[in-house]
Amino acid sequence: MRATASFKDANTLGIYLSALAPVIFGLTLYHFRGIKKIAFVLVSLCALAGVALTYSRPTILAVYVALFLLAKVEKNKLLIRALIILALISPFIVPKPVRDWAKQVQYNPIRFMCNDDRIAVYLNTFNMIKAHPVIGLGANTFMKNYKLYKNNPEYRNIITQDYMYAHNMYLHMAAEIGLLGLAIFLWLIIVLLIECAIIYMKSEDFFVENCALSLAAGIIAFLVNGLTESSLYSSRVALIFWFLIGLVFALKKFITLRRIISNPQVSRDKELKKYLWYVMTDSANFY
Predict the structure, then answer these.
(1) Alpha carbon distance 62, 113 (integer Å)
(2) What is the pLDDT of residues 107-120, one digit of tens each?
(3) Could you tell me which of 218, 255, 210 has the C-alpha nearest to residue 16?
(4) d(CA 11, CA 33)
């Protein structure tokens, strides 16, 4: 039995948790102290349990990558060692059905992570991209056109449905809006992660610094999970991705306002300084 919560399947829950769990882990490990830390440790354990109970291999991989990123950036040697040890012993501690599945796919890492039916969909999607590489088939037309580009026979004689998602948001995007559209999206992600890095390195506020790192980890986890799911094409979980991006730009605004307040000319204008300080503290009071 796999955990699904209020979502239609375990994989969708996994996408949701993989985006939020790293944010919780980052703040728990590197920001909160005292009672708040204890409370967030409990929340983190619940999030970890939820991730494990989805039995979603891409979700577990995404959270693992995010945790490793957090540990590497913060130079947390203890956590890095723990994650490496976990990776080494995981083949021996995973449930027997998982070991049996690995044996069934001949220990092929791609087949193990993606399943044969997903690989069949990927190969069919490549046909769509080859036919319209630059601008794609058009937004929201993947399911409508999928059946027209199916291989015959399909990979390992798998028979996929005529109406499918790509189960890979990058391939899905390339098929609908072309390689040009995919390149623009990847450019947006690169700019966003650079922005997170700038906030992390230049911020003088410990909380803002940790928020930037944790949000970057959550975004990266979502992107990793997108390798096996059309995450951005599910309205229930895509909202989380854009929410995290919005928080990154809110942090940038927060830093900008703080720099303005620290300007000597602004400091002399008490009314302006009072207003700007209100804007900053009002947005941060929740934390």
Answers:
(1) 12
(2) 899 999 988 999 99
(3) 218
(4) 33
Residue 5 lies in a domain: no
Question: Rounded CA gap, 168 and 160, in Å?
Answer: 15
What would the pLDDT profile of 134-177 be if each residue is shown by its tens digit? 999 999 999 999 999 999 899 989 999 999 899 999 999 999 99
- Is the backbone peptide bond immediately before 91 cis, with ω within 30 degrees of 0? no
276 in a domain, yes or no?
yes
- d(CA 157, CA 116) in angstroms, rounded, equals 10
Q: Does any domain span residue 277?
A: yes
Q: Which of 244, 249, 259 is nearest to 204 (CA)?
A: 259
Residue that the structure tokens 């209100």 belong to: 278
Query: How far is Cα 272 from Cα 280, in angstroms, rounded to an integer?
Result: 12
Residue where the block lists tokens 């044996």: 103
CA distance 273 to 261: 6
Round to whole Å and give the CA distance between 121 and 165: 8
Count, residues in the chain: 287
- Taking the C-alpha atoms of residue 156 and residue 122, their distance in angstroms, rounded to an integer, is 13
Distance CA 280, CA 251 (A): 10
Q: How far apart are CA 109 and CA 105, in angstroms?
A: 8
pLDDT recorded at residue 220: 96
Q: Which domain holds residue 187?
A: 10-284
The answer to whether residue 1 sits within a structural domain is no
CA dist 113 and 131 (Å) reads: 27
pLDDT surpasses 60 at 278: no
What is the count of structural domains for the chain?
Answer: 1
